[in-house]
Amino acid sequence: MSSVTLPRTGVFVGGDWQAATGDGADEVVNPATEELLATVPRGGAADGEAVISAARRAFDEGPWPAMPGAERAAHLRRLRDELAARAGQLTDLLVSEVGSTYALAASQHVSLPIEQLDYWTTVAARPDLIAHAPRVARRSGGTSWLGSWVVRREPVGVVAALIAYNSPFLLAVMKLGPALAAGNTVVLKPSPYTPLTSFVIAEAVAASDLPPGVVNVLTGGADVGQQLSTDPRVDLVTFTGSDTVGAAIAAQAAPTLKRVVLELGGKSAMIVRSDADLDQAARLGLQSITFTAGQGCALTTRHIVHRSVIDDYQQKLGALASAVRVGDPARPETQMGPLIRPTAVERTARYVEGAIEAGAILVAGGKRPSEPPKGYFFEPTVLGEVDSSWSVAQDEIFGPVAVTIAFDDDDEAVRIANDSRYGLDGAVVSRDAGTAFELACRLRAGGVAINGGAGWTNPGVPFGGYKRSGLGRENGEEGLNHYTELKTIKYHAG
Ligand code: NAD
Fold it and tell me: E strands within 100-171?
């Protein structure tokens, strides 16, 4: 990896940079080396006030919300090009601040969101008026009216976008794309662990010709997040993070009746039927452990496997997990990087120890690896003979741990899969496509991948969760609708 080019830091407000005025600073640490990557001054209440005012002004007085869609699309295209020109820097930063492997950072965490901006550019250009067919209405006295309706899509207003640490650039773009396409103005607040790519977004915004105040970036923690989700001048909070904080944000936003979109945690299930290709199933199972070291909301870490094949499955998955090269993600041979902070390693270890005490068998991993000597690493871990009721099978660990649970028939597989307070994603592995589809329909989850899914993340289809995994959807028409108000204008001819 080339040396990392750090972006400018501060508060990006109304198209300009200001020094942050909060208390202290956040240390951005490379979780693979424990080296200090950057010290980022923390945004405070005065900065929150400034970004909200700037976004409000840009919405109420600026050209952005009323701009014709085609013009807005041209601005978005320029922003997309400015981000694409920074793809190398973004990738290096994600490797260093998140600990993503280089290949994953370059593809899923950088190229994918830039491609998604192409989709939102197309959406921005679409007409904002939806005409309805006219109707003749008979009136008393024998006359009649020819009347009709036109529905106008309008932006909601000022959007506060609050995001999690694990894939900051993708999560930011998933919110900026539809918010800007619909004509809203935005305040983006990244996680204090991984703020650096949001500053690159600010630099790209500054270099593109978006009107001042359309995108603002503020750092800080829960206090700033609270300010953004309680201030009456913010119209919509779109949040990606844990269910606990999501519930707090819903409560914080309630007194001002803000719109709220919540993309929260998960503990998704993968059903492996007896007719599955077990090599394929084990490869998919491995991804659920190693993808950003298990720090992914939609990972299917509960492997619900038919009793007749569970031993073979565990043996195959265990062999793959044990062969994973764990280490510094900046090295090309590394297949899995670190967790974000020591607390995440400790939490993961606690879940593994608790499961073993309760009677689980350790199929692979289970501890911090002896190498590398520094960094917040944990081995890819597989636990067998787990009961669905145990906390290791119910809680989101957000570490590289999968559990296997046996089932005897499809009904039982569905019951175990749905035995969760979450419902973000799911998977079915089977050579019987029809049955796999029927099982997918019975899972209480916002998405289900059959035999690995479509091979491409389509920004035109909705993403989001049932139950405690969220409220609303991102992407596609449904995602866009959260960022628009609908106005029905009624009129008659003559
Ligand atoms: P987190 O919930 O701890 O923090 C997320 C953000 O919320 C941070 O920016 C934080 O500063 C802010 N915050 C904290 N308290 C707040 C408050 N009271 N009001 C407003 N903002 C507040 O999440 P995390 O540890 O950064 O990320 C991991 C979690 O995110 C996991 O649960 C994971 O599943 C979830 N996640 C979900 C998705 C999805 O699309 N569903 C995607 C990625 C991550």
Answer: 129-131, 135-138, 144-155, 158-162
